Amino acid sequence: MAEEKRAHAMMFPFPCSGHINPTLKLAELLHSRGVHVTFVNTEHNHERLLRTGGARLAGRDGFRFESVPDGLDDEDRAAPDKTVRLYLSLRRSCGPPLVDLARRLGEQEGVPPVTCVVLSGLASFVLGVAEELGVPSFVIWGTSAVGFVCTLRLRQLTQRGYTPLKDESYLTNGNRPFLWVVRPGLVAGDRGMEALPADFLAETKGRRFIAEWCAQEQVLRHRAVGGFLTHSGWNSTTESIWAGVPMICAPGFADQYINSRYVCGEWGVGLRLDEQLRREQVVAHIEELMGGGEKGEEMRRSAAEWKALAEAATAPGGSAYENLDKLVEELRLEVPDGGKPAKVTHAR
Protein backbone atom coordinates (compact mmCIF):
# COMPACT_ATOMS: atom_id res chain seq x y z
CA MET A 1 0.00 0.00 0.00
CA ALA A 2 2.87 2.39 0.78
CA GLU A 3 4.33 1.74 -2.66
CA GLU A 4 0.95 2.37 -4.30
CA LYS A 5 0.77 5.83 -2.71
CA ARG A 6 4.28 6.79 -3.80
CA ALA A 7 4.43 9.57 -6.43
CA HIS A 8 5.41 8.19 -9.85
CA ALA A 9 6.51 10.64 -12.55
CA MET A 10 6.61 9.46 -16.16
CA MET A 11 9.02 11.87 -17.86
CA PHE A 12 9.22 12.43 -21.61
CA PRO A 13 11.63 15.03 -23.06
CA PHE A 14 11.61 16.10 -26.68
CA PRO A 15 14.34 13.81 -28.10
CA CYS A 16 17.12 16.38 -28.60
CA SER A 17 20.06 16.77 -26.24
CA GLY A 18 19.04 20.28 -25.17
CA HIS A 19 15.79 18.81 -23.82
CA ILE A 20 16.99 15.39 -22.68
CA ASN A 21 19.80 16.68 -20.46
CA PRO A 22 17.81 19.07 -18.21
CA THR A 23 14.92 16.61 -17.99
CA LEU A 24 17.32 13.88 -16.90
CA LYS A 25 18.80 16.18 -14.25
CA LEU A 26 15.33 16.95 -12.92
CA ALA A 27 14.52 13.22 -12.95
CA GLU A 28 17.57 12.51 -10.81
CA LEU A 29 16.65 15.27 -8.35
CA LEU A 30 13.05 14.03 -8.05
CA HIS A 31 14.26 10.46 -7.52
CA SER A 32 16.65 11.62 -4.77
CA ARG A 33 13.60 13.04 -2.97
CA GLY A 34 11.64 9.80 -3.06
CA VAL A 35 9.67 10.11 -6.31
CA HIS A 36 9.49 6.97 -8.47
CA VAL A 37 10.69 7.93 -11.97
CA THR A 38 10.16 6.36 -15.39
CA PHE A 39 12.27 8.21 -17.96
CA VAL A 40 10.96 7.62 -21.48
CA ASN A 41 13.07 8.26 -24.55
CA THR A 42 12.73 7.37 -28.21
CA GLU A 43 14.19 4.03 -29.27
CA HIS A 44 16.77 5.82 -31.43
CA ASN A 45 18.19 7.75 -28.45
CA HIS A 46 17.62 5.11 -25.78
CA GLU A 47 20.87 3.15 -26.05
CA ARG A 48 22.94 6.29 -26.58
CA LEU A 49 21.57 7.78 -23.37
CA LEU A 50 22.34 4.63 -21.40
CA ARG A 51 25.94 4.75 -22.67
CA THR A 52 26.42 8.36 -21.57
CA GLY A 53 24.55 10.48 -19.04
CA GLY A 54 22.01 7.82 -18.07
CA ALA A 55 24.52 5.10 -17.20
CA ARG A 56 24.87 6.23 -13.60
CA LEU A 57 21.10 5.97 -13.05
CA ALA A 58 20.34 2.67 -14.77
CA GLY A 59 19.42 -0.03 -12.29
CA ARG A 60 18.65 2.23 -9.34
CA ASP A 61 15.67 1.20 -7.27
CA GLY A 62 12.69 3.33 -8.25
CA PHE A 63 14.30 4.64 -11.45
CA ARG A 64 13.81 3.02 -14.83
CA PHE A 65 14.39 3.82 -18.50
CA GLU A 66 11.80 2.97 -21.16
CA SER A 67 11.50 3.79 -24.85
CA VAL A 68 8.87 4.33 -27.54
CA PRO A 69 9.29 4.46 -31.36
CA ASP A 70 9.74 7.84 -33.05
CA GLY A 71 8.32 6.76 -36.42
CA LEU A 72 11.34 7.95 -38.47
CA ASP A 73 13.41 5.99 -40.97
CA ASP A 74 17.10 6.51 -41.81
CA GLU A 75 16.26 8.89 -44.65
CA ASP A 76 14.26 11.11 -42.29
CA ARG A 77 17.11 11.19 -39.76
CA ALA A 78 19.60 12.29 -42.44
CA ALA A 79 17.36 15.05 -43.82
CA PRO A 80 18.27 18.74 -43.23
CA ASP A 81 14.86 19.28 -41.61
CA LYS A 82 15.11 16.16 -39.44
CA THR A 83 14.05 18.02 -36.27
CA VAL A 84 10.82 19.17 -37.92
CA ARG A 85 10.18 15.65 -39.23
CA LEU A 86 10.82 14.25 -35.75
CA TYR A 87 8.36 16.67 -34.17
CA LEU A 88 5.62 15.92 -36.70
CA SER A 89 6.16 12.17 -36.44
CA LEU A 90 6.00 12.17 -32.64
CA ARG A 91 2.92 14.38 -32.64
CA ARG A 92 1.19 11.85 -34.90
CA SER A 93 2.31 8.62 -33.33
CA CYS A 94 3.72 8.73 -29.79
CA GLY A 95 0.46 9.14 -27.85
CA PRO A 96 -0.85 5.54 -27.85
CA PRO A 97 2.55 3.93 -27.01
CA LEU A 98 2.97 6.28 -24.03
CA VAL A 99 -0.53 5.56 -22.74
CA ASP A 100 0.03 1.81 -23.12
CA LEU A 101 3.39 2.08 -21.33
CA ALA A 102 1.88 3.96 -18.39
CA ARG A 103 -0.87 1.38 -18.00
CA ARG A 104 1.58 -1.54 -18.19
CA LEU A 105 3.74 0.07 -15.52
CA GLY A 106 0.76 0.32 -13.19
CA GLU A 107 0.14 -3.43 -13.52
CA GLN A 108 3.65 -4.43 -12.47
CA GLU A 109 4.33 -5.74 -8.98
CA GLY A 110 6.03 -3.20 -6.74
CA VAL A 111 5.60 -0.31 -9.19
CA PRO A 112 3.21 2.50 -8.19
CA PRO A 113 0.78 3.71 -10.86
CA VAL A 114 1.83 6.76 -12.84
CA THR A 115 0.60 9.81 -10.94
CA CYS A 116 1.85 12.58 -13.24
CA VAL A 117 3.47 13.19 -16.63
CA VAL A 118 6.47 15.53 -16.90
CA LEU A 119 7.32 16.76 -20.40
CA SER A 120 9.58 19.32 -22.02
CA GLY A 121 8.08 22.34 -23.75
CA LEU A 122 8.40 21.13 -27.36
CA ALA A 123 6.66 17.86 -26.47
CA SER A 124 3.31 19.58 -25.90
CA PHE A 125 1.57 16.75 -27.76
CA VAL A 126 2.17 14.63 -24.63
CA LEU A 127 -0.36 16.74 -22.72
CA GLY A 128 -3.05 14.60 -24.32
CA VAL A 129 -1.43 11.50 -22.82
CA ALA A 130 -1.77 12.92 -19.31
CA GLU A 131 -5.36 13.86 -20.02
CA GLU A 132 -6.20 10.34 -21.22
CA LEU A 133 -4.55 8.84 -18.13
CA GLY A 134 -6.39 11.29 -15.88
CA VAL A 135 -3.23 12.57 -14.21
CA PRO A 136 -1.72 16.06 -13.93
CA SER A 137 0.99 17.23 -16.30
CA PHE A 138 4.03 19.37 -15.57
CA VAL A 139 5.86 21.19 -18.37
CA ILE A 140 9.59 21.89 -18.19
CA TRP A 141 10.40 25.07 -20.07
CA GLY A 142 14.10 24.65 -20.81
CA THR A 143 14.94 28.18 -21.92
CA SER A 144 15.35 31.47 -20.09
CA ALA A 145 12.37 33.40 -18.75
CA VAL A 146 12.79 36.08 -21.41
CA GLY A 147 12.93 33.35 -24.07
CA PHE A 148 9.62 32.02 -22.75
CA VAL A 149 8.03 35.49 -22.90
CA CYS A 150 9.26 36.03 -26.47
CA THR A 151 7.86 32.66 -27.54
CA LEU A 152 4.46 33.51 -26.07
CA ARG A 153 4.49 36.86 -27.88
CA LEU A 154 6.02 35.66 -31.16
CA ARG A 155 2.89 36.35 -33.19
CA GLN A 156 2.61 39.89 -31.84
CA LEU A 157 6.31 40.55 -32.49
CA THR A 158 5.89 39.40 -36.08
CA GLN A 159 2.81 41.56 -36.56
CA ARG A 160 4.74 44.60 -35.32
CA GLY A 161 7.61 43.96 -37.72
CA TYR A 162 10.18 42.60 -35.26
CA THR A 163 11.00 39.65 -37.50
CA PRO A 164 14.05 37.52 -37.77
CA LEU A 165 15.85 39.37 -35.30
CA LYS A 166 30.31 28.84 -38.73
CA ASP A 167 34.10 26.27 -38.70
CA GLU A 168 37.46 24.73 -38.21
CA SER A 169 39.58 27.59 -39.66
CA TYR A 170 38.82 29.80 -36.66
CA LEU A 171 40.45 27.31 -34.33
CA THR A 172 43.46 26.98 -36.63
CA ASN A 173 44.20 30.71 -36.50
CA GLY A 174 43.76 31.09 -32.75
CA ASN A 175 47.02 29.35 -31.76
CA ARG A 176 45.40 28.34 -28.47
CA PRO A 177 44.97 24.77 -27.20
CA PHE A 178 41.35 23.66 -27.54
CA LEU A 179 38.84 20.88 -26.95
CA TRP A 180 36.33 20.47 -29.79
CA VAL A 181 33.33 18.14 -29.61
CA VAL A 182 32.25 16.97 -33.09
CA ARG A 183 29.35 14.62 -32.56
CA PRO A 184 28.16 12.20 -35.27
CA GLY A 185 25.61 13.90 -37.50
CA LEU A 186 27.04 17.39 -36.91
CA VAL A 187 28.61 17.48 -40.38
CA ALA A 188 27.22 16.30 -43.69
CA GLY A 189 27.26 12.56 -44.27
CA ASP A 190 27.32 11.71 -40.55
CA ARG A 191 31.11 11.25 -40.74
CA GLY A 192 31.92 13.30 -37.66
CA MET A 193 35.66 13.74 -37.14
CA GLU A 194 36.46 11.90 -40.38
CA ALA A 195 35.21 14.96 -42.31
CA LEU A 196 37.89 17.29 -40.89
CA PRO A 197 40.51 18.37 -43.46
CA ALA A 198 43.99 16.88 -43.20
CA ASP A 199 45.58 20.36 -43.29
CA PHE A 200 43.58 21.42 -40.26
CA LEU A 201 44.59 18.31 -38.33
CA ALA A 202 48.24 18.91 -39.21
CA GLU A 203 48.21 22.61 -38.27
CA THR A 204 46.59 22.00 -34.88
CA LYS A 205 48.57 18.89 -33.93
CA GLY A 206 49.74 19.01 -30.33
CA ARG A 207 47.21 21.61 -29.16
CA ARG A 208 43.87 20.01 -29.95
CA PHE A 209 41.68 17.30 -28.50
CA ILE A 210 38.70 16.29 -30.63
CA ALA A 211 35.99 14.00 -29.28
CA GLU A 212 32.51 12.81 -30.27
CA TRP A 213 31.14 13.46 -26.78
CA CYS A 214 32.21 14.95 -23.46
CA ALA A 215 30.73 15.57 -20.01
CA GLN A 216 30.36 19.30 -20.63
CA GLU A 217 29.80 20.32 -17.02
CA GLN A 218 32.94 18.52 -15.88
CA VAL A 219 34.98 20.04 -18.70
CA LEU A 220 33.78 23.57 -17.93
CA ARG A 221 34.70 23.17 -14.26
CA HIS A 222 38.26 22.13 -15.11
CA ARG A 223 40.79 24.80 -14.20
CA ALA A 224 42.45 24.53 -17.63
CA VAL A 225 39.35 25.95 -19.36
CA GLY A 226 39.60 29.71 -19.88
CA GLY A 227 36.71 30.26 -22.29
CA PHE A 228 33.79 28.57 -24.02
CA LEU A 229 32.85 29.13 -27.68
CA THR A 230 29.18 28.25 -27.60
CA HIS A 231 26.03 28.40 -29.72
CA SER A 232 24.35 30.02 -26.68
CA GLY A 233 21.77 27.34 -25.98
CA TRP A 234 20.28 27.83 -22.53
CA ASN A 235 21.81 24.63 -21.12
CA SER A 236 25.30 25.61 -22.25
CA THR A 237 24.78 29.16 -20.99
CA THR A 238 23.72 28.12 -17.50
CA GLU A 239 26.42 25.44 -17.26
CA SER A 240 29.08 27.98 -18.23
CA ILE A 241 27.77 30.47 -15.67
CA TRP A 242 27.72 27.74 -13.02
CA ALA A 243 31.38 27.01 -13.80
CA GLY A 244 32.37 30.69 -13.87
CA VAL A 245 33.66 30.47 -17.46
CA PRO A 246 33.25 33.47 -19.82
CA MET A 247 31.84 32.79 -23.29
CA ILE A 248 32.25 33.60 -26.97
CA CYS A 249 28.72 33.45 -28.38
CA ALA A 250 27.81 32.27 -31.89
CA PRO A 251 23.99 31.99 -31.80
CA GLY A 252 22.10 30.57 -34.74
CA PHE A 253 18.63 29.41 -33.73
CA ALA A 254 15.59 29.99 -31.50
CA ASP A 255 16.36 31.52 -28.07
CA GLN A 256 20.13 31.49 -28.65
CA TYR A 257 20.08 35.12 -29.83
CA ILE A 258 18.29 36.29 -26.69
CA ASN A 259 20.63 34.31 -24.46
CA SER A 260 23.74 35.73 -26.12
CA ARG A 261 22.39 39.25 -25.80
CA TYR A 262 22.11 38.83 -22.04
CA VAL A 263 25.47 37.06 -21.73
CA CYS A 264 27.29 39.81 -23.63
CA GLY A 265 25.22 42.95 -23.08
CA GLU A 266 23.57 42.57 -19.69
CA TRP A 267 25.73 40.24 -17.62
CA GLY A 268 29.14 41.09 -19.06
CA VAL A 269 30.40 37.51 -19.24
CA GLY A 270 30.84 37.05 -22.98
CA LEU A 271 31.64 38.38 -26.44
CA ARG A 272 29.26 38.11 -29.40
CA LEU A 273 30.35 36.98 -32.86
CA ASP A 274 28.80 38.55 -35.95
CA GLU A 275 26.12 36.73 -37.91
CA GLN A 276 28.58 36.13 -40.74
CA LEU A 277 31.43 34.39 -38.98
CA ARG A 278 34.88 35.72 -39.79
CA ARG A 279 38.04 34.00 -38.64
CA GLU A 280 39.68 37.33 -37.80
CA GLN A 281 36.93 38.18 -35.33
CA VAL A 282 37.03 34.73 -33.73
CA VAL A 283 40.80 35.05 -33.24
CA ALA A 284 40.42 38.57 -31.82
CA HIS A 285 37.71 37.47 -29.37
CA ILE A 286 39.75 34.48 -28.20
CA GLU A 287 42.72 36.74 -27.51
CA GLU A 288 40.52 39.34 -25.82
CA LEU A 289 38.96 36.68 -23.61
CA MET A 290 42.09 34.70 -22.75
CA GLY A 291 45.03 36.98 -23.45
CA GLY A 292 45.19 38.62 -20.02
CA GLY A 293 43.88 42.04 -21.05
CA GLU A 294 41.67 44.33 -18.99
CA LYS A 295 38.38 43.34 -20.67
CA GLY A 296 39.14 39.64 -20.30
CA GLU A 297 39.88 40.11 -16.60
CA GLU A 298 36.65 42.07 -16.18
CA MET A 299 34.63 39.26 -17.80
CA ARG A 300 36.28 36.68 -15.57
CA ARG A 301 35.37 38.75 -12.49
CA SER A 302 31.77 39.02 -13.69
CA ALA A 303 31.67 35.28 -14.40
CA ALA A 304 32.89 34.56 -10.87
CA GLU A 305 30.14 36.78 -9.43
CA TRP A 306 27.44 35.00 -11.44
CA LYS A 307 28.88 31.65 -10.42
CA ALA A 308 28.50 32.64 -6.75
CA LEU A 309 24.87 33.64 -7.35
CA ALA A 310 24.14 30.31 -9.06
CA GLU A 311 25.71 28.37 -6.19
CA ALA A 312 23.66 30.33 -3.65
CA ALA A 313 20.41 29.66 -5.55
CA THR A 314 20.99 25.88 -5.61
CA ALA A 315 22.26 25.56 -2.03
CA PRO A 316 19.86 24.62 0.82
CA GLY A 317 17.68 27.66 1.46
CA GLY A 318 18.30 29.06 -2.04
CA SER A 319 15.51 29.91 -4.47
CA ALA A 320 16.08 26.98 -6.87
CA TYR A 321 16.48 24.52 -3.99
CA GLU A 322 13.21 25.65 -2.38
CA ASN A 323 11.35 25.62 -5.71
CA LEU A 324 12.36 22.00 -6.23
CA ASP A 325 11.08 21.10 -2.76
CA LYS A 326 7.77 22.80 -3.59
CA LEU A 327 7.50 20.77 -6.81
CA VAL A 328 8.17 17.50 -4.99
CA GLU A 329 5.54 18.37 -2.39
CA GLU A 330 3.01 19.12 -5.12
CA LEU A 331 3.75 15.79 -6.80
CA ARG A 332 3.09 14.01 -3.52
CA LEU A 333 -0.17 15.89 -2.99
CA GLU A 334 -1.37 14.59 -6.37
CA VAL A 335 -1.30 10.98 -5.09
CA PRO A 336 -4.81 10.25 -3.76
CA ASP A 337 -5.72 7.54 -1.25
CA GLY A 338 -5.85 4.14 -2.89
CA GLY A 339 -3.31 5.11 -5.51
CA LYS A 340 -5.91 5.95 -8.18
CA PRO A 341 -5.07 8.95 -10.40
CA ALA A 342 -6.92 12.19 -9.89
CA LYS A 343 -8.99 13.47 -12.81
CA VAL A 344 -7.21 16.79 -13.19
CA THR A 345 -4.67 18.22 -15.59
CA HIS A 346 -2.54 21.29 -15.06
CA ALA A 347 0.86 22.55 -16.17
CA ARG A 348 3.85 24.15 -14.48
From TrEMBL:
Transmembrane segments: none
Similarity section: Belongs to the UDP-glycosyltransferase family.
PANTHER family hit by this protein: GLUCOSYL/GLUCURONOSYL TRANSFERASES, OS08G0168700 PROTEIN
Keyword Transferase: yes
Keyword tags: Glycosyltransferase, Transferase
PROSITE patterns: UDPGT
Protein name listed in UniProt: Glycosyltransferase
Any Pfam family hit: UDPGT
GO molecular function: quercetin 3-O-glucosyltransferase activity; quercetin 7-O-glucosyltransferase activity
UniProt key word Phosphoprotein: no
Protein species of origin: Triticum turgidum subsp. durum (Durum wheat)
